Amino acid sequence: MGNTVIAEGKTTTEAIENGLKQLKVSKNMVDIKVLEEEKKSFFSILAPRVVKVQLTVKENVKTEEHKEVKRKVNENETEIKEEIEKVKVFLKEFIEKQPIKNINWDVKQNGFDIDIEINGDNEISYLIGYRGETLNALQIVISSIINKEHSEKIRVHVDINGYRQKRVKTLEELAQKVSKTVLRTGKSIALEPMSAYERKIIHSALQGNDKITTFSKGEEPYRKIVIDIKK
User: Fold this and answer.
1) What is the DSSP letter of 130?
2) Phi and psi of 51, rounded to 5°?
3) pLDDT tier, 223 (very low <50, low <70, confident <90, very high otherwise)
4) Which of 142, 129, 199 is nearest to 168 (CA)?
5) pLDDT tens-digit readout, 41-87
6) What CATH superfamily classification does 64-161 receive?
7) Which residues contact 18 (CB under 8 A, 6 or more apart)?
8) Hey, what CATH topology would domain 165-229 get?
9) How many CB atoms lie within 10 A of CB 87?
10) 40: CB partners within 8 A, 6+ apart
11) CA gap 99, 95 in Å, rounded
């Protein structure tokens, strides 16, 4: 949003209202200057008159807006730090209750994203589960803890032993392999049911293929993605 706009209207009032809509502020927050009143056309004396006005947001308003934005940012940062502490308490208790003791974890903040990395030997694979079901459930639990009372939506990402990155690579390779089969046979192929996150990976992997289309069908949790030839 700029601090100054030039607006037009059939009357001064209409021109001002149009300018306020552009700036998204109230009338008492701007300085108004009528620039000119002119014909829309030099070739018709019947053309309606046009009023031009210049609206400039007052300096004190910009300062107050900046203070308000800064205040909200500080409040959000404080809230996120408080939520991260809750996550750390939860993870500490959760990991201590596991039968495997050689488990490390780390929590990092990136804006409104919280990244949680859990690492250990292969024995902690039970925390990942089949196709990441247990891992996804853990992520949902932590997300619900964080967003229960927070005023802004915080995105939580949980990964164990780099599973998600490996899964992305596996799904991308699967998408390319199946798309080649579809092109060769001329028949669509429906993959196994996947989460919305995994279906999105398949969609993204093939969105640049101008011969292939992808779409989802079915109801959760059995919703699956279909790879087909683009008509």
Assistant:
1) G
2) -100, 130
3) very high
4) 199
5) 444 444 556 889 999 988 776 555 555 555 555 556 677 788 888 88
6) K homology (KH) domain (3.30.300.20)
7) 7, 8, 9
8) Ribosomal Protein S8; Chain: A, domain 1 (3.30.1370)
9) 21
10) 47, 48, 50
11) 9
pLDDT tens digits, one per residue of 127-172: 999 888 899 999 999 988 887 765 567 888 999 999 998 999 999 9
Extract the tokens encoding 42: 């030099």
**What is residue 135's predicted lDDT score, i.e. its pLDDT?**
93
| Maximum pairwise Cα distance, the chain | 89
Locate the domains of the chain by residue range: 4-57, 64-161, 165-229
Residue with tokens 């014909």: 39
**Which residues, 6+ apart, have CB-to-CB distance to 53 below 8 Å?**
6, 7, 8, 9, 12, 15, 16, 19, 32, 33, 34, 35
Q: Where are the beta strands (DSSP E) in 2-153?
A: 4-9, 30-39, 49-57, 103-110, 113-120
